[in-house]
Specification:
The complex is a heterodimer of chains A (115) and B (110).
Chain A (H helix, E strand, L loop, with lengths): L4 E3 L2 E4 L5 E6 L6 E7 L6 E7 L2 E4 L8 E4 L6 E5 L8 E8 L9 E2 L3 E5 L1
Chain B lengths: L3 E3 L4 E4 L4 E7 L6 E7 L6 E6 L4 E3 L2 E6 L4 E6 L8 E9 L4 E4 L3 E6 L1
Parallel strand pairs in B: 2-11
Antiparallel strand pairs in B: 1-3, 3-8, 4-5, 4-9, 6-7, 7-8, 9-10, 9-11
């Protein structure tokens, strides 16, 4: 079956531009996670949804970052007024159950480069 | 102390050898543990969950030591295709915190 998909796969933004990154989780998966992965680092947790509810956004680095999952399936991560330090791969993952207990299935990521 | 720590490596290991690496965690409330594998410029994929009693999947063995707060991964008869970065993941159910380690790079040499 289809896995987690993300779009765009690559995004180049000028500093100050707003970007929107999309995640399509596996159908029926309750939990959805966003991570930021810088080069040579492990994924850093950003935010977590259980269905449409955003239960944890403690990892979002600033108020320029905003995520939503209005109908409990597709999610969008929006970054306003992008800065160079936002350059990273943004990974989305979904899991069947609630919370952090279950295997997460990752999408291929969106590589964001801010120039 | 960092919440989840891994030796970044790289571990350069000849094909056929056995290699092991550890991951330490600081939150004693942690309850779920996983090893993920990440190939270069690819997404992480689950390698195995780590159970309290330890578990084995083919050439891979994972162990949990709660007293010393670390998990380990042992790879026997290593293959060239085992070359990757191995990420340790620790979850706390109490606060649903998910922490990834920075990963250990493994290179299997022909």
């Amino acid at each position: 079956g289809a896995g987690v998909s993300q779009s765009p796969r690559y995004k180049v933004a000028k500093r100050g531009q707003d970007v929107a990154l999309r995640c399509d989780p596996i159908s029926g998966h309750v939990s959805l996670f966003w991570y930021q992965q810088a080069l040579g680092q492990g994924p850093e947790f950003l935010t977590y949804f259980q269905n449409e509810a955003q239960l944890d956004k403690s990892g979002l680095p600033s108020d320029r970052f905003f995520a939503e999952r209005p109908e409990g399936s597709v999610s969008t991560l929006k970054i306003q007024r992008t800065q160079q330090e936002d350059s990273a791969v943004y990974l989305c993952a979904s899991s069947l159950g609630q919370g952090a207990v279950y295997e997460q299935y990752f999408g291929p990521g969106t590589r964001l480069t801010v120039t | 102390r960092k919440e989840v720590e891994q030796d970044p490596g790289p571990f350069n290991v000849p094909e056929g050898a056995t290699v092991a690496f550890n991951c330490t965690y600081s939150n004693s409330a942690s309850q779920s543990f996983f090893w993920y594998r990440q190939d270069c410029r690819k997404e992480p994929k689950l390698l195995m969950s780590v159970y309290s009693s330890g578990n084995e999947d083919g050439r891979f063995t994972a162990q949990l030591n709660r007293a010393s707060q670390y998990i380990s991964l042992l790879i026997r008869d290593s293959k060239l295709s085992d070359s990757a970065t191995y990420l340790c993941v620790v979850n706390s159910h109490r606060d649903d915190k998910i922490i990834f380690g920075k990963g250990t790079r493994l290179h299997i040499l022909p």
